[in-house]
């Protein structure tokens, strides 16, 4: 008999079905009656074992059951009487009367309870046994929400003629402000790959490659001190488009977010459409932050206050008195400020095309129109004090690529973890990542990072200091 998913059983009253899943809870009523709440990925169903109706062997199996045993059950779907209907259960109008039962696997007692909110459990313990935590209803719901949001974005972008392209994970460093993870090369002694802090350069090179509209559900890696709610690896909806200006990108993202909320989180209300726009100066003077919380009612869990922050300064002073970029060195200045960049004057007054999308006090993503002319990109690095040699060494490949008819282009990268965290009303991004790291960047389930045997280190030409 084919397996039936539990959520499909309510429409099958009168039929015999085969269901598979885990014992969520067991309720023994006297000697004769046992209720098993069986759980699969689609929900819970009540299975009834009335022992006087069962043969001895089946009754013995029922008596041996414990929570989290893995079962295969064949039984009859029966409509419940009006008084027995449970409106809180998706299968609350029916129950399944056991005909036969097989224990596919037993289970030890779990280290923590999963039939209630696991957020009260010690987090180290939860993360060590993350696979058990994921059995809990809330965690499962968060994973499904994440999948829904990602599926929605993929469909939306495909309809807008975007192509999803995978970019390398083993790559070369890029100056986007974060420290990078290094991966030593075995075949090239003394050389290293780095893990990408974002696919920034690749997506721009794809524009030179004529892709025109690119996106990727992209993993990004940043080896930063773990301040607050950060993860060393996180996911962005990385996008880039050719022949667009700032307005085009902002419009597309705004529509995409509005439609996504309607489709994936219909209980939420977006406070203001079109999303309000603030200049960086306004945001700082009014809210003291470049990611202002624009919500009118911060206690309303269903309120989403999106907004845009624009007109950031391109450069800021370094401690040593030079200049560095504020957001992204590949950005173009605002068109009316291009001349100042080309003449390298009034550096502090140059504004970038950078646009940040903010949501409920978080930065939900950022992007910009890029410098697609090699001369202009070169000027950015000159302002930051790079010598010609350094520029050619580090960015020669970009400058050369842009010399072969690079189209004007721009993009953005909304962060998926934080967005889904807000949609799920969760307090941190670890609740919406299947297998996150701890606050100090450890994977306690797998035991990473870990020491390596000497031979493995020798292979990659590494000698430890101590
Ligand atoms: N690469 C940028 C980031 O990771 C996003 C962008 O400018 O598209 O923040």
UniProtKB/TrEMBL annotation:
Aspartate: region residues: 200-203
Organism: Candidatus Uhrbacteria bacterium RIFOXYB2_FULL_45_11
CDD domains per UniProt: AspRS_core, EcAspRS_like_N
Name listed for the protein in its UniProt record: Aspartate--tRNA ligase
Enzyme Commission identifier(s): 6.1.1.12
Gene name, Swiss-Prot/TrEMBL: aspS
Residues annotated as binding ATP: 222-224, 231, 363, 415-418
Family listed: Belongs to the class-II aminoacyl-tRNA synthetase family. Type 1 subfamily.
Subunit record text: Homodimer.
InterPro entries registered for this protein in UniProt: Aa-tRNA-synt_II (IPR004364), aa-tRNA-synth_II (IPR006195), aa-tRNA-synth_II/BPL/LPL (IPR045864), Asp-tRNA-ligase_1 (IPR004524), Asp-tRNA-ligase_1_N (IPR047089), Asp/Asn-tRNA-synth_IIb (IPR002312), AspRS_core (IPR047090), NA-bd_OB-fold (IPR012340)
Catalyses which reaction(s): tRNA(Asp) + L-aspartate + ATP = L-aspartyl-tRNA(Asp) + AMP + diphosphate
Top EC group: ligase
ATP-binding is among the record's keywords: yes
Highest taxon listed in the record's lineage: Bacteria
Localization of this protein: Cytoplasm
């Amino acid at each position: 008999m084919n397996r039936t998913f539990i959520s499909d059983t309510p429409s099958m009253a009168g039929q015999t079905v085969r269901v598979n899943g885990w014992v969520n809870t067991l309720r023994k009523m006297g000697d004769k009656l046992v209720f098993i709440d069986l759980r699969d990925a689609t929900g819970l169903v009540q299975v009834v074992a009335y022992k006087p109706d069962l043969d001895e062997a089946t009754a013995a199996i029922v008596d041996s059951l414990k929570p989290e045993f893995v079962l295969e059950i064949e039984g009859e779907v029966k409509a419940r009487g009006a008084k027995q209907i449970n409106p809180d259960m998706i299968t609350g109008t029916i129950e399944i009367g056991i005909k036969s039962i097989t224990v596919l696997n037993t289970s030890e007692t779990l280290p923590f309870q999963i039939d209630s909110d696991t957020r009260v459990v010690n987090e180290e313990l939860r993360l060590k046994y993350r696979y058990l935590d994921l059995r809990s209803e809330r965690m499962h719901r968060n994973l499904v929400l994440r999948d829904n949001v990602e599926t929605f974005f993929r469909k939306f972008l495909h309809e807008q003629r975007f192509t999803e392209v995978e970019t390398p994970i083993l790559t070369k460093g890029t100056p986007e402000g974060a420290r990078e993870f290094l991966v030593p090369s075995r075949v090239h002694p003394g050389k290293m790959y780095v893990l990408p802090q974002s696919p920034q350069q690749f997506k721009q090179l794809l524009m030179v490659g004529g892709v025109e509209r690119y996106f990727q559900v992209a993993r990004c890696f940043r080896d930063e001190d773990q301040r607050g709610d950060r993860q060393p690896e996180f996911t962005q909806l990385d996008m880039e488009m050719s022949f667009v200006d700032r307005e085009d990108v902002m419009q597309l993202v705004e529509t995409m977010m509005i439609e996504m909320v309607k489709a994936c989180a219909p209980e939420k209300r977006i406070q203001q459409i079109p999303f309000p726009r603030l200049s960086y100066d306004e945001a700082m003077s009014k809210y003291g932050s470049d990611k202002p919380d624009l919500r009118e009612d911060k206690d309303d869990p269903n309120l989403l206050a999106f907004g845009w922050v624009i007109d950031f300064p391109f450069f800021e002073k370094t401690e040593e008195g030079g200049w560095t970029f504020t957001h992204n060195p590949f950005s173009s200045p605002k068109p009316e400020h291009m001349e100042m960049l080309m003449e390298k004057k009034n550096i502090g007054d140059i504004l970038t095309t950078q646009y940040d999308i903010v949501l409920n006090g978080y930065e939900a993503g950022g992007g910009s129109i890029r410098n697609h002319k090699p001369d202009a990109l070169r000027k950015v690095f000159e302002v930051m004090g790079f010598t010609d040699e350094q520029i050619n060494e580090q960015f020669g490949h970009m400058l050369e690529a842009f010399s072969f008819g690079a189209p004007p282009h721009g993009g953005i990268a909304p962060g998926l973890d934080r967005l889904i965290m807000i949609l799920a009303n969760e307090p941190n991004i670890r609740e919406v990542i299947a297998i996150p790291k701890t606050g100090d960047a450890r994977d306690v389930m797998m035991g990473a990072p870990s020491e390596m045997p000497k031979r493995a280190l020798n292979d990659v030409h590494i000698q430890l200091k101590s």
